[in-house]
Amino acid sequence: MSEEPEILVTNDDGIDAPGIRALAEGLDDVGNVTVVAPTTDKSATGRAMSREVTVEEHELGYAIDGTPTDCVVAGLEALGPYPDVVVAGVNEGANLGMYVLGRSGTVSAAVEAAFFGVPAIASSLFLTEADFGEPTEPSDYEAAVEATTYLVEHALDAGVFEHADYLNVNAPHPGADASGEMVVTRPSHGYDMTADRDGGTITLHDRMWDRMDEGDIPDPPGTDRRAVVDGHVSVSPLTAPHTTEHHEALDALAETYD
Question: Which of 107, 114, 179, 189 would be 165's cystine partner, CB 3.0–4.6 Å?
Answer without folding.
Answer: 114
